[in-house]
Amino acid sequence: MNRFESPRQLMGYLGLVPSERSTGESVRRGSITKAGNGRVRHMLVESVWTHRHPPKIGKTKLYRLEQVSPAVREIGWKAQSCLTARYRKLAARGK
Q1: What is the DSSP annotation of 16-32?
Q2: Distance (Å, whole) CA 41 – CA 48
Q3: Strand partners of residue 22
Q4: Where is each Transposase IS116/IS110/IS902 C-terminal domain found (predicted)?
């Protein structure tokens, strides 16, 4: 992360920036460029898609949650809630 001066540089490296077709004053932006590391890009996109739904505990995860301390459970739940809220704010703005 230290090798990038800004989040824009990181997104450009991963290929998560919109493609652009420009001629004169006409600017058309398309889908993401898909340049860069495909595995990292895939992981990031999939992780974002998981946060579009409200956080909940499924049957398969309940077993794992019972094995950790309540403090760890609280941290995980707070992180899930924050990421879901962030996704919804960005989606509401059209991002």
Answers
A1: -SEEEEEETTEEEEEEE
A2: 11
A3: 27
A4: 1-52
Phi-psi region of 60 (alpha: psi -120 to 50; beta: other; left: phi over 0): alpha
Give yes or no for a contact between 59 and 33, defined as CB atoms under 8 angstroms apart.
no
In the numeric block, which tokens belong to residue 23?
A: 């001629």
- Work out the average pLDDT over 49-55: 82
Domain ranges of the chain: 1-46, 51-95
State phi, psi for 15 to the nearest 5 degrees: 80, 25
What band does 71 get if pLDDT is binned at 50, 70 and 90?
A: very high
Q: Is 14 exposed, middle or buried (0-12, 13-18, 19+ CB in 10 A)?
A: buried
Looking at the chain, the whole-number percentage of residues with pLDDT higher than 70 is 99
